[in-house]
Design goal:
This protein is an all-alpha fold. The protein contains 18 helices and no strands. It has one domain.
């Protein structure tokens, strides 16, 4: 009996380590191409995809011998069923995609599917809280490494950190904001994570990614107003700290916005984005039901002067362009399902923190999606959708 208990403990320790490594990879992979494959970006993408495959294989091996695990139980929740519908639709669209290379589009889809399957395999049993927190800790650490790389890299001409081609400030801003909310979630259990949250908040501001900053502020205000387990004193301290950081960077922000309005490419301003939206909508209407296929946007939309858009700068419009009306319905259903699951979880189980985190991240993603998005997939990463869905849909089992 003692030996059986030791084996179970060792298995749980190994699993938690694997989950931490998975989170670390999800956070760090944004800069793999930048660090090692700028000369050959395709190889960088292939290496990233191969690492995703290795991680999936490790998660699959970890399930061997676990007789209690069943994939059918993973997809019993509404959010997971919507997520499965999104993965299936995106995969089917590879058959008709108008991307420059259907094989590249298929590779990107395979990466998304591998992420979903990996997290679904790693988060199982009754120890969801420990498992998901380990994954979030890994993601925060990986993102902090990315932030360090960005801070040490040459500053862009417009004074933002990052790299225009391989480590774009807007992509950094999105990741820093997501990691900030995870670090804030972890702070409730270990106050040392507040330093990670502060570092990520400062790094987010330094990217001067306007959409991510505004979306983060809106979601954070929502969190502070709704969070009843946090004292008013701590909330005031958070507000004061944010004010001090903004004041410290005010000169830089002012200089950037002066350059942005006077010398920036008009297609990159909010007014210019309306032109991108209009053209994207007109082209999307050519195939309104199923769209032009995954990763087709960059291949079909022409450049606006010197500015070459990689996505529609609006999440629902991007999904409409690539996956048609079916994609819009599935995307809306997916976000709504997670919002509803998070709200019910927070209401019925106030001590279970993942409902609150899910609501905050959905709100952030929806605000972010108004004027920005990602090249493929959703603003809220699919792997994180899986983690939050499992933690909220199975709260009765895991709480």
């Amino acid at each position: 009996m003692v030996s059986d208990g030791i084996q179970v403990a060792e298995r749980e320790c190994m699993r938690t380590t694997l989950q931490w490594c998975a989170g670390l990879f999800f956070g760090f992979r944004i800069c793999i191409t930048y660090l090692g494959f700028q000369v050959d970006p395709r190889t960088g993408s292939a290496v990233t995809l191969a690492l995703s495959g290795c991680l999936f294989a490790a998660a699959l091996i970890d399930t061997f011998g676990d007789t209690t695990f069943s994939m059918s139980t993973v997809f019993h929740g509404r959010t997971m069923r919507w997520l499965l519908a999104y993965i299936v639709l995106a995969g089917a669209s590879v058959a008709w995609t108008q991307a420059e290379s259907s094989s590249v589009a298929a590779g990107y889809w395979a990466g998304m599917a591998a992420d979903v399957a990996t997290v679904a395999l790693l988060l199982r049993g009754v120890a969801i809280q420990r498992q998901l927190d380990a994954m979030m800790r890994g993601f925060v650490v990986g993102t902090l490494v990315v932030a360090l790389v960005a801070w040490l890299s040459p500053t862009l001409p417009d004074m933002r950190i990052g790299n225009e081609d391989f480590l774009h400030p807007n992509g950094l801003g999105l990741e820093f904001a997501l990691a900030f909310f995870m670090a804030q979630h972890l702070t409730a259990k270990n106050r040392h994570w507040r330093w990670a949250a502060i570092a990520l908040g400062v790094s987010l501001l330094r990217t001067i990614s306007k959409t991510s900053i505004i979306a983060c502020m809106v979601a954070e205000c929502f969190y502070l107003l709704r969070e009843r387990q946090m004292s008013r004193r701590i909330k005031v301290q958070i507000a004061l700290a944010a004010s001090v950081v903004i004041a410290a960077f005010w000169g830089l922000l002012e200089a950037y916005f002066s350059m942005y309005t006077a010398n920036g490419d008009q297609a990159e301003t909010l007014t210019g984005r309306t032109t991108i939206w209009a053209l994207s909508f007109l082209m999307a209407m050519e195939r309104p039901w199923v769209g032009h296929g995954l990763y087709s946007y960059r291949a079909l939309i022409p450049a606006f002067g010197t500015f070459e858009p990689w996505h529609a700068h609006n999440e629902l419009l991007q999904q409409f362009f690539e996956l048609g009306l079916f994609g819009v319905v599935v995307t809306a259903g997916l976000y709504l399902a997670l919002w509803r699951a998070g709200g019910l979880s927070a209401k019925n189980h106030p001590d279970w923190p993942y409902g609150k985190l899910a609501a905050v991240l959905v709100l952030f993603s929806l605000v972010h999606g108004l004027t920005d998005t990602v090249n493929f997939g959703l603003s809220l990463p699919l792997w994180l959708f899986v983690g939050l869905a499992i933690a909220t849909d199975q709260v009765e089992v895991t709480a």
